[in-house]
Amino acid sequence: MLQRLSTGHVVWRLDESCSGSLSPKLIALLSKWAQHSFWSREAGGLLLGFIDNETEGLLGEFATTPGRGDRRSRTSFYRGPRHQQEAIEWNRVTDGRGTQLGLWHTHPELDPTPSPTDLEDCRNVLATGKFAVDGILYLIIGTRSIGCWFAKSGSPLVLLGNFTP
Length: 165
Hints:
The chain is α+β, with helices and mostly antiparallel strands.
């Protein structure tokens, strides 16, 4: 379901009404947080980007990154409220076009898979958040690959695939 284009973009299509892309800039930003060292702590944030007006595709362009107010350990990450404030600012500086597209975080494993805590976090975000489309992207950055899922309220995560940064 995932494909890398010659431009470096990773594109995906779940069905006729659900598709998107991740920019090379976003992929590079997220890759910097991979937990390659045994002392590396989990990192995470929000995926930001745009909704394509014609296809309603999710166009991932940027992400919030760890900082003040977050709690991080080797195997857990808590997003502080600053991430939501940065998403609001992203919307403002993009003249109302930019929006939150999903969530990302790291795992200290080669090819990541969601933990029970991840699944609960995703359910909570879908239940309490407001999104421009009917679902969110959920990325987990491993030490070898990035796992990409699509999540809809009331449905299990759907694996779109893994790709190397």
